[in-house]
Amino acid sequence: MSGIARILLARGARVAGSDAKDSPTVLALRAQGARIAVGHDAANLDQLAGPPTVVVSSAIRPDNPELVAARQRGLVVLHRAEALAALMAGRQVACVTGTHGKTSTTSMLTVALQHCGLDPSFAIGGDLAVAGSGAHHGAGELFVAEADESDGSFLRFNPWVAVVTNVEADHLDHYGSAHAYAAAFDDFLARLLPGGALVSCADDPGAERLARHAEAAGLRVRRYGRSAGAGEGDAVLTEYRPAGLDGRLRLRLGGPSTSTEHELTIAVPGQHMALNALGALLAGLELGAPPAGLLEGLAGFTGVRRRFEFKGRAGGVAVYDDYAHHPTEVAAQLAAARQVADGRLLVAFQPHLYSRTQQFSREFGAALGAADEVVVLNVFAAREDPVPGVSGALVADAVALAPERVHYVPRWAEVPEVLAGLARPGDLVITMGAGDVTVLGPEVLRELSRQDSAVTAAPADPGQ
User: Fold this and answer.
1) Is-catalytic flag, 102?
2) Which one, of 304, 254, 243, lies nearest residue 276 by Cα?
3) Catalytic site includes residue 311
4) Is 374 helix (H, G, I), strand (E, B) or coil?
5) 103 catalytic, yes or no?
6) Is a pLDDT exceeding 50 seen at residue 459?
7) One of 146, 208, 329, 373 is an active-site residue; which one?
8) pTM score > 0.90 for this model?
């Protein structure tokens, strides 16, 4: 939503809106000229002169007072995706979608294109670490967008290039079944413009199924991954080596008659990030950017906020924050963190949505078992009402670790003290989830510093 507002402001539109509370995002929009109210109230519709067009996110419930008033007044009401599609009009569009990796891949593609001297407009579901923003109105003809599949809204877009990172059951609260979720990606393929291309990860069974459907329909397909074929335009990851917070990879680009070998170092750890880089590379080539420039741009990519974002170090403990909120994402990020950690790996996980917690509690437990100590918070409800019998305890009970290494802490305010008490010098702590767990990092660092100071200042035991 903030990205749409940024682009509208850059194009000279008058923008107003509301949010539940103040935040750095709200302050930034105000600095750019937007009128943002705190709290939802029908009176907020009068912040601009004349009847406004109202744009709503999927998180807005039907009984929201502003939405109710807008419908009663007969105002134009657009879903977020409809507004974003309107901003794309007249541009050559690349959409990145999939169950996991959308934000990182979209960000990598954007940075790589910028390095090639292009100025794409972009709308990303996270803020670039360097730019500090996830949206921009560019002067060029390209528009790069993260396409959200969670509620089917990605079916509003008509891309020239579609990147599908993976297709794995999720958002069953909206789709009802894994089959219906996968079918939505087939519908998304039908939105691809004539002459366009699908860029698909060959390592993922769901994405490969989609690629075969695309080929059967006569669409151009470019594959990437360790198991990618040797087709013209494919990208094969031939080697990946972790190197601290970096990943070093070798890749082969092109088919049997035109293949070239390349080495690339990316400043984000994990093989899943290496695969994201290959997907961004192929998408950039489909948009006409030169391979050398794209590779240099990917090498300069410094990450996205909330994707294994370093928050600080205190008492010899490194603290990171990550957005992972699906079992596959949790497993991939913990595997990458394990390669970075000098000591033990501690994770504070906040389940997101009651429906997802109920459906995947066992899978979350299996993924979290890769850590040495696990703290599970209560469920972040987001747009849902509580479900009887569903809480973070379902996930905690499923973690495949000794009971003394799993801690269910339903009171949010107690988590920093628990984490700091468990951690010792050399450990790596990750706060993880799609909810407000993200703000715990600074609190954990403060508690680590406090406990470290208390230990340092404690008088010597006279009995020693």
Assistant:
1) yes
2) 304
3) no
4) strand
5) yes
6) no
7) 146
8) no
